[in-house]
Amino acid sequence: MNIMECQIRLSCAVSETHVSAPEDTHYHRIAASLREMVRAYESDGSVFYNSGDPVNALASYSYGFGWLHFGVSSGLLAITRPCACPFTGIHEMLQPPFRAKLEEKASRYERLLDRARTSVICAPDPGTTSHDFAQRVLCIAGLYARFGVYRKNAGKLEDALAHFSYGHGWLDAGVTAGFFRIMTERDLFCV
What phi-psi label fits residue 19: left (phi over 0), alpha (psi between -120 and 50 degrees) or beta? Predict the structure, then answer.
């Protein structure tokens, strides 16, 4: 899939997404902030893409998908009509002028995701369904970190960056929604 397709898929998904919690509730406010963050990452990605920066565009779109899928999985957001997954197929290979930036960013995002995963603890008490969901989010972030390392080691840096960004998006959204307490490195999150 090329980066423009990522933008189209994220744009489609955002337009089909609505807040599922009743208005005037705490959950509605959380869900609305999640949806706004998805829109912000879609917008940032478009700005990067249109200014000739496909590396940051890919990272932004993938991060936005992480936020979106967290919101839907948590039940805070709902999608009227599902749109295609951002991980269908292999991402386009960026041209040689972007390779150095792509290498640097994929390596940096790998480190950031690893640090973010060790910077949080589950906020809900063990034995609660909220704790179980927080554990699931940590598992997803870890899974996408491993996918990213695998892709990076295979020389598929575009896929690696997308996986690292997506996993961090899940974790960042989980922090914003209150499923985690930040113990160290608060600067790794949007709160």
Answer: beta
CA 129 from centroid of its chain's CA atoms: 22
Rounded CA separation 86/1 (Å)? 8
Query: How many CA atoms, within 13 angstroms, populate the side-chain half-sphere of residue 70?
Result: 37
Those residues whose C-beta lies under 8 Å from the C-beta of residue 165, and which sit 6 or more positions away, are: 58, 59, 60, 62, 63, 66, 109
Beta bridge partner(s), residue 18? 78
What pLDDT, in 10s, does the model give residues 134-177?
Answer: 999 999 999 999 999 999 999 999 999 999 999 999 999 999 99
Note the helical H segments in the chain.
Answer: 3-15, 26-50, 54-74, 99-118, 129-153, 157-176
Stated pTM of the model: 0.95
Contact 149, 93 (CB under 8 A): no
